[in-house]
Amino acid sequence: MRHLHTRTVRRRSAEVIAAGLLCVVGATLPAFAAAAPPSPAQKSSPGVPAASAPADGLALTPPMGFNNWNSTHCRAEFNEDMVKGIADIFVEKGLKDSGYQYVNLDDCWALPSRDTNDKLVPDPTRFPGGIKAVADYVHAKGLKLGIYTSAGTKTCDSVGFPGALGHEYSDAQQFADWGVDYLKYDNCNNQGVDAKARYTTMRDALRATGRPIVYSICEWGQNKPWEWASEVGHLWRTTGDISDNWGSMLSILKQNLPLASSAGPGHWNDPDMLEVGNGGMTDTEYRSHFSMWSIMAAPLLIGSDLRTASEATFDILDNKEVIAVDQDPLGRQGRVLSAEGGRWVVAKEMQDGSRAVALFNETGSPQRIATSAQAVGLPTADAYALRDLWQHKSYNTAGTISATVPAHGTVLVRASVDARWAEKPPAVELGVDEGLLVEAGKATTLTSTVTDLGRTPATRVSVALSGPEGWTVRAASPTTTGTLPTGRALRTKWRLSVPVDAATGSYDLTLRVAYRSPAGVRAESVLPLKASVVVAPPTGVSSLGDLPWLSTTNGWGPVERNTSNGESKPGDGRPITIGGVVYAKGLGAHAESSIEYYTGKACETVTAEVGVDDEKDAKGTVAFEIWADDVKVAETGVLTTAMPAQSIAADVSGALTVRLVVTDGGDGIDSDHADWADAKLGC
């Protein structure tokens, strides 16, 4: 289901399109029969029976490659030169060797009309040599070419390029004749025709060509394709479109994680393309994105323009140890073991008997996340090997798998039973307590911990904390120990002093420990931290729309002050309006959203009128929550566009921070424009 936000939005749900057609007075929807298969004389090769598919050997691991849409949409830079340039980079940068093989064209490659023979016509401006010439170029690099169309009368872009509904066999044969290896089949302008019938017809048409073509079903999860599409396509979208922001990625992740039982070799859940490198998230968030897509055995389709990508982007996309988790031939999707308080443990069984384990922190502050070797499915053993897939380092553990995970971060490890575990240094866990919020000109104290998780002791342990230039960081207790036995911790108190002229905002700190194994093997572990310089909340009752926040995440565009969410650009909101009532003050958000304020244990109440903004007149289901530190103190349940504003109030006495959270109501984030109208903080 595509997001109905911008005026240039490319996707429309089947229901909305059908409704739009029915709004014409006296209009009726045309009946669309599936295109008849060509006669034997018309076929270039025999057809394949439409019954349950035999194993075709395609997509035995999740497809890896590139798709242009997230970086170019329908803009002019999507053209033959770009596609060839991506193929060149796949080879030059070693991405081909890492498993990336499909170079896929999305919408806008064709002219808006078919030719006189009812055939698709490549845009001669974008692709002057035609699609076959591009396919030949890509194939010469040892790569494969993908193409796009929609299971409707037109594709999803507002221009309305020809769709394949009623033309399935003809279009499929054109794709095969051009040398296409992959088809993404969208869901726009589908005229209300049954989804399973539409996608099955194209399956049969692709088989009839005799060419092996990976078939990607893109019906946005509307008809639960994970329940029926394993005999139709090789992968199927489980959600609406992803956007290049944390809230969108998080919402899609949460929708896809419960579907693990549906995935396997040749049939994959597809939570949409990668946004890594497009600029809307931090590198920490992009590593989480890539880690979680990999542990979900999701297709890895790069969505950024690699011609201008940073080295940090390539480092993420070309992490071969993470890719190996995604491409493991056993084909299991990771399963959720726990998710309390936004602290996720997801484990994936690997073909060699090891387990990939993601410790994922969805919250805005560092969190300790822990599990054990036995909890993730490993047999009982004296000790285990633990490989950190981002630090590329190996350790031994007595059984605990844990880490303090930075805000929005993921620690991805591979745990195994290994007879040579003792040759590896012990794993250690770094952590800190409270103390990362400090007012300018003042000092704060925090305590760091270094805990030995290994079966062997850590020796010659030394811990250090560094901060920004101008800050004073001093240890107030010992920073070293000669031996740290299994399960024991070195605790060090630190005093941080912040310059009086320090601006509010986030600052980097680094906690680092160096140590050795009993055999003298050197090891090091690093925990990046964020400290925030904050302003004490004003006394009295204040409008939250006027107060500085610590952090925000939002599912569509930025959080807006004293207006609705609007669209994706900053400052494009409208007056906050719920059920026809206009509010002068408040916050305009969009699920999934979190807005965090520093309250310094000096405030008592948060109140607001909440609901879906009237700028979305037909859709939107959201729920509102207020959190005091790590405790949920108020919630509304699910609200819809049809409901008037609801009052929400919470006692936040003693809380250091307060978070205003909007969730998606359990059905994805499409149109979830959420208002915290007349939101107030009493201190």
Give a written overview of the molecule.
The chain is built from 11 helices and 38 strands. The longest helix has 15 residues, at 195-209. The radius of gyration is 27 Å and the shape is globular. The model is unreliable at 1-33 and 39-54 (pLDDT under 50).
Topology record:
Blueprint (H helix, E strand, L loop, with lengths): L13 H9 L41 E4 L1 H4 L7 H13 L2 H4 L3 E3 L25 H11 L3 E7 L17 H11 L3 E5 L8 H15 L4 E4 L17 E3 L8 H11 L11 E3 L12 H13 L4 E3 L8 H7 L2 H7 L8 E4 L4 E7 L5 E7 L5 E6 L11 E5 L4 E5 L2 E6 L4 E7 L11 E5 L4 E3 L3 E10 L5 E9 L5 E4 L4 E5 L4 E9 L7 E12 L5 E13 L6 E3 L7 E3 L6 E2 L14 E3 L2 E3 L2 E5 L2 E6 L6 E8 L8 E8 L2 E10 L5 E6 L5 E7 L9 E10 L1
Parallel strand pairs: 1-2, 1-8, 2-3, 3-4, 4-5, 5-6, 6-7, 18-25
Antiparallel strand pairs: 9-10, 10-11, 11-16, 12-15, 13-14, 13-16, 17-19, 19-23, 20-22, 20-24, 21-23, 24-25, 26-38, 27-32, 28-31, 29-30, 31-38, 32-37, 33-36, 33-38, 34-35, 34-37
If helices are DSSP runs of H or I spanning 4 or more residues, what is the number of helices? 11
What's the helical proportion of residues?
10-25%
Shape: globular
Q: How much strand content do the residues show?
A: 25-35%
Q: Widest sheet: strand order? A: 7-6-5-4-3-2-1-8
**Rg estimate, integer Å:** 27 Å
Poorly predicted parts: 1-33, 39-54
Q: Separation of termini?
A: 43 Å
Which structural class should the secondary elements be placed in?
A: alpha+beta
Gist?
The chain is an alpha+beta fold. The longest helix is centred in the N-terminal third of the chain and has 15 residues, at 195-209.
